[in-house]
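Comment thread on ticket #2218

A.B. wrote:
> Attaching the input chain for the structure job we discussed in standup.
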Amino acid sequence: MAENTFRSPKGVHDILPKDHEYHTYIKKVIRHRARQAGFRRITTPMFENTRVFAQSIGETSDIVSKEMYTFADKKGRSLTLKPEGTAGVVRSFIQHGMNKLPQPVLLYYIEPHFRYDRPQKGRYRQFWQFGFEIIGESDPALDAQIIQLSHKVNEDLGIDGILTLQLNTIGLPESRTEYMQVLQDFYAGKERSLCETCLNRLDKNPLRLLDCKEEDCQILAKLAPDMRDYIDKESLAYHEELLSYLDEMEIEYTENKKIIRGLDYYTKTVFEFWDRETGAQNAIGGGGRYDGLIEQMGGQNTPAVGYAAGIERIIANMKREKIRVPSKDDLHVFVAQLGKEAKKKCLVLIDELREEGIKAMGALGKGSIGVQLKMADKFNVPYAILIGLTEVREKTAIIRDMQKGTQETLPINKVPARLVKMIGENNLDKYSPGELLYS
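C.D. wrote:
> Ran it. Output below, let me know if you need it in another format.
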């Protein structure tokens, strides 16, 4: 590639047609499961006022302190490309008075997000996430349902077998205050064993030391005092009830006391789906309860629980497991013609075919019928339609079966109905008219 050829910026990538087949399939699974459970779709703006994230995620979190794409608009207002989905959903919930709707409010989203992070496998600076939010009720049964919903999506995508559910409770903010002081006392004098990131976290957010991925930090984290010894009784009872629901639904889980999550707004339940082999290094998503966030952002005291997962990471796992997804993009028909009058007829016919839900292309260039049929072979279409001077005069068309090499001639106005029947008889995928509008 020449040196002056443009390339995408570091950390972002093009979603090429083959990967869009995965995106389309994953979105379809998410929409299906969300609708089954009564969730309604929400889309928040690509950017928000910076305070939305600073106030919700936490000034000391890695996201706010070093990973956000923040810029000033022409009037000097600080705006940020959204690094995660929950903060924008909460802002929208408050702004539009959703507390007046029947509670709980069930919302889901499928959107791009942005973080300035070190690019690596499955981690990009622009990435897609989907998420589920249940706002307005505090009940361990809702935590269990959002975990079950996430698990069902993993099952539908064929990756549940390579994932483990890691589960923890981090209690209420009040009970964590004492524990954070205990952690700081424990790490005092051990600073030389901490990575640079954890050194910065020690005074500002010591809980994050427990989920650091660096080996030396992990060793210390295993020796640190147990958070459960400091968590309030209410949170522990809540957690035990959640476990009983998961057991009843036969959802396997691993209790992991080091699961903290990187966002400051979590309370009580936190969970992640880890790769069985590589663990937290390749987690596809996670979530938890955030009961104080809406009040913290100016709304009423409103409990909530949510989950979000990275679509690029899911696709990487699906590919690793050699999971193929159905393609809706394969063409059914290539329409070949000879001469301007034939091309006019073909353009009308192509439109009629598409209106019948048949995926068709053609009426291209000025090449011979043979050249156009070679083009049809490249597109791997099962059928070709041929219209030449004779067919124009006789108002007919030839349908050729590209696999069998057989063909038949019939009136041009009968072609769409005949192809619909042939495609149905051969179980070839076909969109019904209007299906794309609702899929």
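A.B. wrote:
> Thanks. Noting for the ticket: The chain has two domains: 17-172+231-320, 333-438.
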